[in-house]
Every structure is written in C-alpha cells, then in structure tokens.
Amino acid sequence: MSKIFNMSDIRRTFRYMKRNGPRGAYYAAKERMKLRAESRYSYLCPDEGELANQRNETHDPERAPSITVVIPAYEPDAVYFRKAVESVINQSYPHWRLVITDGSPSDKTYDIYKEYENDPRITYVKHEGSPGISANTNTGIVAALALMDGAGTGSAPDGMSAYIGFLDHDDELTPDALYHMAKAVMSSAVPGGPVLVYSDEDKMSEPDPSTRLYFDPHRKYGFNLDLLLSNNYICHFMMARADVMKDLRFRSEYDGAQDYDLVLRIVAGLIRDPHNSPGSSTSLSGPETYVVHVPRVLYHWRSHTGSTATNTESKTYAYEAGLRAVTNAVNALFPACARAKNVEHRDLPRISHSKHLGFYDIDWGDADTLFLLRPDVGAVVGRVLDAHGRMKECIYDRDGNALYAGLDNNFAGEFNRFDCSQDVYSADINHMIVRPGLDASRLHELGYRILYLPHMITREK
After folding, report:
1. What is the DSSP code (8-state) at residue 198?
2. How far apart are CA 172 and CA 58, in angstroms?
3. SS3 label, residue 197
4. What is the DSSP string of 30-81?
C-alpha cells in the first residue's frame, strides 16, 4: 500500500482538496492509486557492455554533435550535486563538455568543483551578475558558446551542429542520455540538425543506488503545440541547438518557468507568419520537424523535501510565471488574439490556471470564434461520453490508437492529459465541428490542425 499511496501523496491530496474540493480530491487520489497499482515501471540501467558499444559507435568527433551540459548551481546539497556532476562524467557518449555556473554566495559549489578540476572537459564559472536561476543559467550559456570554437556554433567539418543541454544541480542523467540525444540529432534530416531535442523522464528517491526507487515515468508525446500551451510537458532532459541559443537567453522575469518560456519562444520562432492561412508557403506549420522527441527515460528528477518533484506548491511563483509565458506565446503565435482585445471578442482568449498546478486552460470561445482566432485549426472535437460517463473511441493518434477511450470523466488521465487541450491526428467525423468550407477528409493535406477541447462535452444515452 505504501508504494501505491505514501505520505507525499496524502499531502498532495490535501492541497488538491483545498483548491478543488473533496470530490475533486477523491477522484484525483483514486486515479493516482489506480495508476500506481497498474504500473509495472522499473528503470533498468544499461550494462557496461552496452555502454561500451555506444562509446565505440560514436567515437568519431567528425560524425557526431558536441554537447555542452550546463548546470546552474546555487548552494546545492553536496551529495546531490556530486551525483549530478558524475552523471555527466559517466556518459557513454564521449563528445561532451560540462559547464558549472555558480551563483552561490558561499564557496560550497567551488569546493566541490575542485574535486573535478583536473578533468579538462569541465569548466567552472562564477556568476557575478543579477541573482536568480535565469541569470545564473545565462552565464553558463555564454561560457558554453565561448567554448565552441570561439564562434558559438561548434560545427563539425560535416556541418553537424553543437547543442547545449540543461541539468538541475540535484538531478541526474542516465549514463546513455547524451548518446541517445546525439543519435536523434544524427538521424534527423533537418539541415544542421533539429532545433530542440527532448526526452522522457522519471522521478527518483534516494541518492544511494542500493535503496533508490524510480517511479512516475513521464512518457511524453511528440511535439504537440496545444498540449505545450497547456503545460510544459517537454521539461527534462532538453537540449537546444547552440546557434539558436546565440540569440536567445532565459528571462529573469520568468524565473521558475524560465525553461517553459524559452521553449515557447523557440517554438514561436519556428512557426512562420500566422497571418497567412494554412496551405500557403508561410503557414503555421513546421515545428514538428524541428522539435524532436526521444522516447526514452534519460533524466532522473530527484524527489526530496522541498523539490518541485515532491511538492508542486513549493514554487507557486513559477506557475504565475508560466501563465505569463503562455499568454505571451499565444499573442505571439496568433496575432488575431491580440487584435481581438479591441474588437467584439475583447475578452478572448481567456488564459487561466487549470485545477492542476502548472497547467493552463485557454478558453477560445465558441467554435466560430476559435476559427477566427486560430487560422491553423481546421476542426475541433470534445469529449464524447457514453451512458456510464466514460470516454468513447473518438479521437486518435497518428498510429490509429484511440486516446483516453474508457476513461472516467472524473479522471484526468496520466499527467492530466485528458484535461488538456491538444492536437489530435484524427477524430470521429460525427463529433467534429469543421471550419466552414473545408473538406474534413483533407485537413492534414491542407495543413490544418484538429484540436481536442476537453471542456466541450457530449453525453450519449
């Protein structure tokens, strides 16, 4: 029972009840217990033979991207920090550098760095500027770019790009993390490599491997614009192309959600002029090619007292920053939304906190208004519930799998995705509202999205 529902879950349920009431807390706890009971997850570290093969496969620097990992440190726990540093040192992928940027007022971080200073791949930089995680990380980005051939591109002779990844000072990479991220870059057809690469992640407990538990694996979706506007599902582990980072920095006014803000700005930069209709040469399309998902757990998010992994309310300011980041992204991606503030749709879209901390709801109004504000959307579809209040087979992914079929309407789904607006590949035509003048069978061909809206509910008898 303790593995299914522990003290951390009890505290989480109590906090959820304060926000959403007893009924909401009951179903949230019930669903969490159900998911835990059904989980068969167990992280299996690759053995030494497999890691050796990975080293041999990627030994040639002319055929592989260089990756610089930035750890912004601030008064870290000594045990956790050493584990973070050593998780980079122990990578099977050989073409890496590590930049430790130290925003601590004490010498704690520097003293630990001294244990590794003989490794030429590790660089220590003292952050002397403004306080905060964004400013500290930016110092690391500047140092990483300076290490890359003095130009900030790090391009190998064959044009392979360099990348900058980000690791929190108390978390760990799996020993094959950079290998799989590099393989995703090398297998991409995008000239210069994908702009953003991200992996799955899990949570871990004790630093001692003999007693450590791995749990709550986050198996992520591929790039999904509207899901990203609902929540920063990309998160850890993430790396961005260095030439892109030459022009971007974390913004201190978004501390706590600085990575979310960065991802949203990268995505906005990838999307062409949203004034144009889909199907034109400047349509709202393209990020799916340049943002690559590696479907493997490559990052261990440490769960300890005070961490966001354990206590989602430990950084409530981060959720306010996230709300601002989403609002800015919506206005940047869809200029019609900003214009609507001064016309008949003056209060749309309404962007607000979801009942789930760190998640956001966007109210686009009715379908006609949504089509006006979102030129990229060709159809919308909501929840279709059977007589028992369970989701019917109605929306589908690219492989034809029905999403959320059979899920109780009171549940939120894994990582609350059932409650999130998101792009779906296809939907039952009987339940779609299609943009006037469009052929529903040609939506993908014409470059339009199909948008699932969880608050649109149809109950069948």
Report:
1. E
2. 22
3. strand
4. HHHHHHHHH------PPPHHHHHHHHHHT--GGGS--EEEEEEESS--HHHH
